[in-house]
């Protein structure tokens, strides 16, 4: 569909085009979760409260301290100093961002006496790594699971993993933790108050993990890879990162305090913002699906009308319709870190097709009522990860001539794309 006509789907009243029916069915089949009346309203309410505005200040802090625990725990300890570590860039980025995001949302191990905080931090590192290991197995089964085409063995494995997550993330286990985010806590409490069985609340916890952790890690990989493949982008982002740190009087040095990054500091990074937006334009490909609840006409921007019937489904795929439209985004297959910057260096929002301004010029987060409520937190997660990588690590591709890996098209429609293969890199702490 022509992106100028997207509004006719995205803004249509729920009585005509409904997102809920399809989503409800999918979460039942894939996550075994049966929603409550008003479920979506609570999801929106608590996401707005905790993942945006003042709530985002708290979440950004939590993310920062968990990223530091995972990435910098050996900083200054003398361990592995100056030693290069080899890894897959996808595995590394997804692992770190998934685990830090999980700990920021689901809380930390409560320190016990006499072991104390360091032991609890170590337990966070180990437990989150185990969770990620199992999550990746489920993640890989996910496209076929969602399409309902798993083989018998895969089906059994998916069932085993689902039960494992219900257990690992159970309300009982999570409630013993410190620093649980308001996002997780409020959503669990409202369901408990409304009489949802605890076993169903456990299932909901897994749904929250999935929605919050399945996309940001893969996006962190693409972002870092694009930067490594485009020296001019890396140079511009590095200059911005250094400037933000300088302006807040922070310096990374041996024996010095770890840098802090607040939500407010992350509001002053137009170059990195544009780089993130460009990365998502090229690598986030959700499908927006709506069920048609009554016979109706869909009006296109050029005046045409399509009659659609009750029972039909309408789906938008912005990736081909607008992300890769050469009229809206010239040379669309090329990564241009400053595509979303004006000549004055501020965020660019003017994009045109047929001489008309396009409102929905990229849609990595979907749009309308189901638009991702985690988008500000996710963007901050990505930016914090890049800040720490650039400030504390030397890193390089093992083979600088290695081509960009292809996108695994089996995941088209599910949000952030994953590569068909990993790419080798090495990294080491700078100090
Ligand atoms: C780069 C990272 C992310 C991407 C690309 C992304 C993308 C999306 C998209 C496309 C949707 C809409 C799906 C639809 O229309 O049905 C969505 C929904 C959602 N996302 Fe995200 N997301 C990301 C990160 C996050 C994070 C970090 C959180 C939470 C902390 C989150 C929480 C949610 C929730 C709760 C929904 C369901 C919203 C609803 O049904 O109203 N997402 N996300």
Automatic annotation (TrEMBL):
GO terms for biological process: lipid metabolic process. It is a single-pass membrane protein. It comes from the Eukaryota. Its cofactor is heme. InterPro entries: Cyt_P450 (IPR001128), Cyt_P450_CS (IPR017972), Cyt_P450_CYP7A1-type (IPR024204), Cyt_P450_E_grp-IV (IPR002403), Cyt_P450_sf (IPR036396). Heme binds at residue 372. Keywords: Endoplasmic reticulum, Heme, Iron, Lipid biosynthesis, Lipid metabolism, Membrane, Metal-binding, Monooxygenase, Oxidoreductase, Transmembrane, Transmembrane helix. Gene3D superfamilies: Cytochrome P450. GO terms for molecular function: heme binding; iron ion binding; sterol 12-alpha-hydroxylase activity. It holds the Pfam family p450. One of its GO terms (cellular component) is endoplasmic reticulum membrane. It is found in: Endoplasmic reticulum membrane. Substrate binds at residues 29, 215, 313. This is Uncharacterized protein. It comes from Alosa alosa.
